[in-house]
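Action item from last week, closing it out:
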Amino acid sequence: MTGSSTQGITTVLHPVSDLAKAKAVYAALLGVAPQADSPYYVGFEAEGQHIGLVPDGGPQGMTSPVAYWHVKDIEAKLAEVTAAGATVKEAAHEVGGGRLVATVTDPDGNVLGLIQDR
């Protein structure tokens, strides 16, 4: 197999209907306070993992948790996975701090996330 490897999954985003209630549950589960806490996103850092809470699925309309694979070159990885049969759901775009994200669906409709930190 050729192409670039991923750096693994260290980010999982969860759509939530009630951000305050979900924040309390995840804080109890993870044993830490959120590092990012806003009306549109709550993020926790725990044991090398980033767990994010997105109210109402966010602009991407998530309906279930999405695992994000960290990659060095998001455009190259998008080209690789689409050539292999994935479909772009959300094109690469910046979400702040130089971070780029994108999502694709596999042939069965499962959503896979990609993240590139600059």
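Closing note: The domain at 8-56 is CATH 3.30.720.120 (Signal recognition particle alu RNA binding heterodimer, srp9/1).
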